[in-house]
């Protein structure tokens, strides 16, 4: 039985003061693969104190010193890439190619950050004044279970680049992956107290963090409900806040789109990461005039999105992360059927031959109204809602009729036309005829999808404060 280390404080892994034990269940077969002893309030306070003590020294480190550290972290992650792939596969259920891509991105995030700080003006002339950018202080970093290594890398690299020290609270449901990332930081020789980790129940760790006046920054990725709670609590101690929250992304197929490429891409956008992605394009908006063509294209492309254990085959989708997620998706599929949507592909229950583990059938509904539950709420599983529109103006209106605004997609053979549509969508990022990721461009959302941005210069500035110097 593997025992996962949950607590890293002041430069070393330590036994947590917390006594609660939890089992790690593999979604591949529903069996226990590891145990973790959760950190608690006392551990969190020790981590905060360590970060506070380290801040004075690390905040004065040079760009060259921070760059060298991040290069070493990149190198250490690459050394452990096979271990990360194994953990991501067993603990999360990711297909191997997805696991490899996601963990390589975690490594290159640190070298991308080196490029950012070497070109960033930490001091600049503004009219008659000098404006300098200083570290915001001790940052609390909350990362999700659906992209453990990548989310840790995005937050930690930006905080390191800015000169902050930090307390990392990864999701307890990605604890094996988080342990490996911390081992990489340790092997890279990160100064004691600069990065600390406490892995335990979110409400327990968060209580200590939000009460502390020593923590001056919170960066949270997760559900909109929890993000709003943390943002409200942050006001009491005036913590700076970055929130990357939920999404219900619209994918607009314009009337001139080539369905042979647009529909497979739309299914990939909806089913990426086993459907467990805040950026998933789960609302597919299609011209009513081409509805039957879309139907045929979906029926043709959907069977290529195979489901199975990544340990035994090269499947496009693995299981969902937990029994809770499996049950949640079944409820949404039931809701779609109950509200009168047409079940085109997939449906309730396990795929044939996959009764063990938390596998679901990739599901496509047609005849969806934008007021149905499957069109309004973030599902976080491989369920696609197809919504017909009469004209471009209506398509834009439907796309924007959502409490979320994280990502959107547009497909058209006329990229100029698609770009005009993209400018009218209330989303933080719009992909036109592609599913590419730009790691240096800002990422974040409008409306209930969050506050602030991650990646690149924008992400760095979330961890900086402006100070104006005026000389007489």
From TrEMBL:
Residue ranges annotated for the Aldehyde dehydrogenase domain, each copy included: 14-468
Organism domain of life: Bacteria
Keyword Oxidoreductase: yes
UniProt cross-references to InterPro entries, sorted A to Z: Ald_DH/histidinol_DH, Ald_DH_C, Ald_DH_CS_CYS, Ald_DH_CS_GLU, Ald_DH_N, Aldehyde_DH_dom
UniProt keyword annotations, A-Z: Oxidoreductase
Catalytic residues of the enzyme: 244
E.C. designation(s): 1.2.1.3
One Pfam family named in its UniProt record: Aldedh
The reaction(s) this protein catalyses: an aldehyde + NAD(+) + H2O = a carboxylate + NADH + 2 H(+)
GO molecular function: aldehyde dehydrogenase (NAD+) activity
PANTHER family the record matches: ALDEHYDE DEHYDROGENASE, ALDEHYDE DEHYDROGENASE-RELATED
Family: Belongs to the aldehyde dehydrogenase family.
Stated name of the protein: aldehyde dehydrogenase (NAD(+))
Record organism: Pedobacter miscanthi
């Amino acid at each position: 039985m593997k025992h996962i280390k949950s607590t890293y404080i002041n430069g070393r892994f330590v036994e947590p003061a917390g006594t609660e034990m939890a089992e790690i269940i593999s979604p591949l077969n529903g069996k226990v693969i590891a145990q973790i002893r959760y950190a608690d309030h006392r551990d969190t306070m020790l981590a905060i104190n360590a970060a506070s003590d380290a801040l004075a020294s690390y905040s004065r480190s040079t760009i060259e010193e921070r760059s060298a550290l991040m290069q070493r972290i990149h190198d250490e992650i690459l050394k452990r890439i096979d271990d990360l792939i194994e953990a991501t596969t067993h603990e999360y259920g990711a297909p191997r190619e997805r696991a490899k891509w996601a963990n390589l991105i975690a490594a290159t995030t640190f070298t991308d950050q080196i490029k950012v700080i070497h070109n960033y003006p930490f001091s600049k002339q503004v009219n008659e004044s000098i404006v300098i950018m200083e570290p915001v202080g001790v940052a609390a970093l909350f990362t999700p279970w659906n992209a453990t290594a990548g989310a840790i890398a995005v937050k930690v690299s930006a905080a390191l680049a800015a000169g902050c020290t930090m307390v990392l609270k990864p999701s307890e449901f990605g604890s094996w992956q988080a342990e490996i990332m911390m081992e990489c930081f340790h092997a890279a020789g990160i100064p004691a107290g600069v990065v600390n980790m406490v892995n335990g129940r979110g409400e327990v760790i968060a209580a200590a963090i939000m009460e502390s006046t020593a923590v001056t920054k919170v960066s949270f990725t997760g559900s909109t409900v929890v993000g709003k709670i943390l943002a409200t609590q942050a006001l009491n101690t005036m913590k700076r806040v970055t929130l990357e929250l939920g999404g219900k992304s619209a994918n607009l197929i314009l009337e001139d789109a080539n369905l042979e490429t647009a529909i497979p891409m739309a299914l990939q956008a909806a089913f990426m990461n086993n459907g467990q992605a805040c950026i998933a394009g789960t609302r597919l908006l299609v011209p009513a005039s081409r509805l039957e063509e879309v139907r045929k294209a979906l029926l043709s492309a959907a069977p290529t999105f195979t489901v199975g254990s990544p340990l035994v085959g090269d499947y496009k989708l693995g299981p969902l992360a937990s029994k809770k997620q499996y049950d949640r998706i079944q409820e949404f599929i039931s809701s779609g059927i109950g509200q009168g949507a047409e079940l085109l592909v997939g449906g309730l229950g396990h795929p044939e031959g996959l009764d063990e583990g938390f596998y679901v059938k990739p599901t496509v509904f047609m005849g969806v109204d934008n007021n149905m539950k499957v069109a309004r709420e973030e599902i976080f599983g491989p369920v696609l809602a197809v919504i017909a529109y009469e004209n471009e103006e209506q398509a834009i209106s439907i796309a924007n009729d959502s409490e979320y605004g994280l990502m959107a997609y547009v497909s058209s053979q006329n990229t100029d036309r698609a770009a005009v549509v993209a400018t009218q969508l209330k989303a933080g990022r719009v992909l036109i005829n592609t599913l590419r990721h730009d790691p240096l461009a800002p990422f974040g959302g409008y409306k209930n999808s969050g506050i602030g941005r991650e990646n690149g210069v924008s992400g760095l500035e979330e961890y900086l404060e402006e100070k104006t110097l005026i000389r007489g």
